[in-house]
Structures are given as structure tokens and as C-alpha cells.
Amino acid sequence: MGSIISMALLFVFGVMLLNADVGSCGCFKRIFAFGDSIIDTGNFRTGSMWMPPYGGTYFHHPTGRCSDGRLIIDFYAQALGLPLLPPSGPEENTGKFPTGANFAVWGSFALSPDYYRKRYNLSMGHACLDSQLRSFKTVLARIAPGKAATKSLLSDSLVVFGEIGGNDYNFWFFDPRRSRNTPHEYMPDVITRIGAGVQEVINLGAKTILVPGNFPIGCIPVYLNDHKSNKSTDYDQFSCLKWYNAFSQKHNQLLKVEIGRLRSRNPSVKIIYADYYGAAMEFVRNPKRNGVDNPLVACCGGNGPYGTGHGCDQNAKICREPSRFANWDQVHMTEKAYNVIANGVLNGPYADIPLLHAC
Ligand SMILES: *[C@@H]1O[C@H](CO)[C@@H](O)[C@H](O)[C@H]1NC(C)=O
Ligand SMILES: *[C@@H]1O[C@H](CO)[C@@H](O)[C@H](O)[C@H]1NC(C)=O
User: Keyword set for this entry (predicted)?
Assistant: First the structure.
């Protein structure tokens, strides 16, 4: 009798343990992430993102994140029952990273300086995907040495690969001497570089990879201000710049084709496309539904149209309620916007497998 009761208790306890282990989603023990300032949680060590008013909403101090609070990757981590992802940089040579690490660096491009030197005779010193993947392998060689150990570690990890590639276009579009058509020429190489990066982490053993697309850049305050036009036909019905949004959509379309190729080459790997364009357009199409006033105006900046005219720093004009804004500093979004975008990826409809169902 006694032993039956204790067996029943054991069973119940066992089931409870199992449920606890499964957590809120369950399948990922850790996250590894790559990308630029959209996802960097503190690798880039200097800049205005290390000063107030950055970080004021959630952390109550700056953390190196380009927002007033959490980023999309922070919402992924929390929804998956994991701690916020530490930046890899400060602990690259010592960290054990039991729940993963973030290799994303502010200002990173997909393509290397070498590419732009050879193709366009440009000498630039930007960070890029190559260096992030190098750091990743250095860390893997320490925390899971050997091919088999690395494979096993990555098999129950989630890899978030981006957003990356946005800066490959930004730098070009913000130089007025340059033709805006040129980025269309190198866009296929940006896509190929992202695809090759994804294949590289698959070869190391990754089994679930989330690949986000680019945002509707024609709705971003710096683009709206720098490329303003007196032709009404340059704007869509939401007052965003048509040409630049079409450009982002083209990037995303090519990225989806590349993901299709990667899927057929790696049938046992889940590669999820995250539609950041569609998710961000929610605010533009229907700002009131998300409690946003004007989605095209930045919370932190100047008196110009779109909140431009002054950088985001302590002397900026700072809105009283960041949660009523989608855009934070004229480039990056508010925690509020990132939360809504993350929910659209975690629960759908802005991911072809909602991330919480990817287990
Ligand atoms: C490449 O750029 C450098 C520096 O701007 C310039 O001096 C040189 O003439 C350029 N070369 C070509 C082939 O355009
Ligand atoms: C529109 O802008 C262009 C170039 O910025 C300028 O040359 C043109 O005169 C402007 N047209 C009107 C109607 O303001």
C-alpha cells in the first residue's frame, strides 16, 4: 500500500519535474544570436546607447541596447523561459554561456570591408558577420570542444540569425553622392552571405534557426527625413516612402528564396523566416490598435518632422510616454514596438513556424 502511494507520488512528482523541465516552451536550452544594433545587447562598447535616456523604460539604466528597454531578442529569451542573453564580448575568453550568448554587434554589415573594397573601391572598417562567426567558433571550441560536443550543444540551441544586412544598405542610402539604384546590384551578394552564414551554423550542428528579414525602411524617421520628396506619388497611403519599402520587400523576397534553398539542402533542420517587415507594418497600418500615436515620429530626437534634427541623447527632446511611440531614436524602435514584433514571431502570424511552436 505504502509503496503504491509512494510510487504514485513519485509518478506525479516525475510528471511535475518533466513539466518544469519543459518550461514555457521547452525545447531550447540556450540561444545564440548574430546581427546588428537591432539585436546587440551590449557588445558594442561605446556610443550614445550607453548613456541615458537609453534603457530608461525597463532596465532604468543604459545597457548598450539601442532602445528605451528590451529588444526583440530579449522577448524571445523571456518567452522561452531563458535569462536575457548576455553579450559575448565581455566574456569571450572566459564565459561558459550556459544559456547561450549574443554575438551581434552594433553597426555590423553582412558583407565584409574586403567585399566593398574589391567591388566599389571603398575603404571601410566596419564590423561584419565574418567576425561574429569567428568569435562564435572561438567560444564553441572552449565550451564544447570537438565536433561531436559542438553538434550536441547546438542541437538543443536556438540560433537567431539577424536582422543582418540592413547596414549594407543604410551606409549607401545615407551618402547623397551615391545612386540609390546601386544597392540593388549587390543585394544578391548580401543574401548569399546571409545564406552562407546560416549554412555554416547548420554545419556546426544547429537544428533550429530563425532568420529575420529587413524592416520597412521607408517608414523609418531618418529615411523619411533624409529622402523627403515633394512628389506625393513617392509616398504610400501611410506616408511611408514607397521606393525604400519596395527595396526592403525585394531583399525579403530574395531572402525567402535563399531560405527555401537552405531548407531543401538541409531537410532535418528547421529554418524559420521571421517577417519583421509585416510585423512592423502593424504600427503603420493600425497604430491605434497598439496604443501608438504617430508611428512615423521618433520618441527621442529633435523638433523636426519625424522627430529628427537632433540625435538621441540627454539634450534631446524626449517624449513623456515611449510606449505611445513605435520609433525610439529615429532609427531603432521602442521596447513597445519590439514587444509587439516579438509576439508576432513567437505566436504568429509573422513567422512561418511561430517560434513557440517550433519545439
Ligand atoms: C580608389 O579610391 C582611391 C581613394 O579614394 C582613389 O585614389 C583611387 O583612384 C580609386 N581607384 C579607382 C580604380 O577608382
Ligand atoms: C521639388 O523638388 C525638386 C528637387 O528637390 C525641385 O527641383 C523642385 O523645384 C521641387 N518642386 C516643387 C513643385 O516644389
Answer: Glycoprotein, Hydrolase, Signal
Q: Residue 176 CA: which ligand is closest?
A: 2
pLDDT at residue 12 above 50? no
Q: Count of CB atoms within 10 A of residue 14's CB?
A: 10
Residue 203 identity (one-letter amino acid): N
Which of 37, 67, 108, 135 is catalytic? The answer is 37
Which CATH number characterizes residue 124's domain?
Answer: 3.40.50
Inside any domain, residue 16: no
Chain segment 197-237, per-residue pLDDT in tens: 999 999 999 999 999 999 999 999 999 999 999 999 999 99
Percent of the chain with pLDDT over 90: 92
CA distances from 191 to 197, 212, 241, 278 (A): 10, 12, 23, 19
Q: Indicate the number of domains in the chain.
A: 1
Ligand 1 center to residue 179 CA distance, Å? 18
Per DSSP, the residues of 100-147 read EEE---TT-BSS-HHHHHHHH-------BHHHHHHHHHHHHHHHS-SH
User: From ligand 1's centre to the CA of 178, what distance in Å?
Assistant: 15
Gap from CA of 119 to ligand 1 centroid (Å): 12
CB-based contact 307:301 (threshold 8 Å):
yes
With CA atoms as reference, report the closest residue to 113 among 124, 97, 102.
Answer: 124
Query: Rounded to the nearest whole angstrom, what is the distance from the C-alpha of residue 117 to the centroid of ligand 1?
Result: 10
Specify the pTM: 0.92
Residue 2 lies in a domain: no
Domain range for 58 is 28-283
Distance from the alpha carbon of residue 121 to the mean position of ligand 1, in angstroms = 6
Q: Is 123 a catalytic residue?
A: no
Q: Is residue 339 part of a domain?
A: no
Q: Is residue 213 part of a domain?
A: yes
